[in-house]
Amino acid sequence: MRAGILMAAALLWSCSGRSSSSTDAGGDSAEEGDSWTSAGDSWMSADVKLGDAADVVNFIGTWVGYVENHTFSSGSDAIKITLAPGTAVGSLQGTVVLGKGDPPPPPQDPEVGYPQGLDDDLHPYLPYEGFVYTCLSPTVPQQKRLKFTIQLEELWKAWCELQTKTYPFAESYQCVPPGAFHHSSQGCTLDNALTGAKEAVDCGKWTLCSAGMGVCSCTATSCTVDLKGGASFDLSLSGNELSSVKGLSGVNNVKLTRQ
To answer: What is the pLDDT of residues 31-54, one digit of tens each?
Structure first.
């Protein structure tokens, strides 16, 4: 279920709500958050598949523009892409900031959902405006063409990696005990299937940790976020302008100008 929900968010940039309980165990400038790190994540770059280092140089710089025929929750349509040389010859690394606003502060508390105020619905946070998303596997498959992806779930990667205790669930692991989850105006509780006790649980933590519904991907010892997939960019270079070859994830075109 989670995969379908979040892929829809990546493709359409808008989502509908989901149940809060489960019984199963042009315009505006995207100036904020410009940095070479993203929620503690390291650079992910890829060697150029076709072409050479001279082709890569054409894309280096800061690009500012908009998502055509779309606005984010703030009303902004802004997008900012920053690209730099990768560690290997003929590779790129970069970041993407969508909309406007400040990125959330780094997560601190593994027992409370992130960002602060998260309840049982991830959709309002996809995408998170101002967050610095990593350009994943950027490539220049042919001269003056750039491709990469961003993973909207990267917002929660650092928080998931704070989790130090995991629990077996089905054939995988999750960072809350298995059991029936209950949501009410008084808060959230969990019928712990391992102990038989009814326990209070932070609503946001359950939302992020529950296998099949959350975003944390866990093993017996740790959790993270799987950065595969996501929203794809396929951009064409013309002078000092970048624009979509087939649109953002095949849906919305983007247009950017070098700064």
So the answer is: 444 333 333 333 344 444 434 667
CB 101, CB 129: distance < 8 Å? yes
Which single residue is written with the structure tokens 């093993």? 219
**Residue 65 parent element (H or E):** strand 61-67
Higher pLDDT, 31 or 55: 55
CA 182 from chain centre, in angstroms, equals 27
% of the chain exceeding 70 in pLDDT: 77
Residue 3: enclosing H or E segment and its boundaries? helix 2-12
72-93: pLDDT as tens digits = 999 999 999 999 998 887 789 9
Backbone angles phi, psi at 126, to 5 degrees: -120, 110
Which of 1-5, 194-198, 246-250 shows the highest mean pLDDT?
194-198
d(CA 96, CA 82): 7
Count of the separate structural domains present in the chain: 1
CA distance 34 to 215: 25
Q: Is residue 166 part of a domain?
A: yes
pTM of the model: 0.80
For residue 18, being part of any structural domain is answered with no
Whether residue 19 is contained in a domain is answered as: no
Name the residue range of residue 107's domain: 2-11+26-258
pLDDT at residue 4, rounded to an integer: 38
Q: Exposed, middle or buried by CB within 10 Å (0-12, 13-18, 19+), for 16? A: exposed
**Taking CA 191 as the corner, what is the angle to CA 189 and CA 196, rounded to the nearest 5 degrees?**
140
User: Beta-strand (E) ranges in the chain?
Assistant: 46-47, 61-67, 78-85, 91-98, 132-134, 136-142, 145-150, 167-169, 172-174, 179-184, 187-192, 198-200, 217-218, 223-224, 231-238, 241-244, 254-258
Within a domain: residue 175? yes
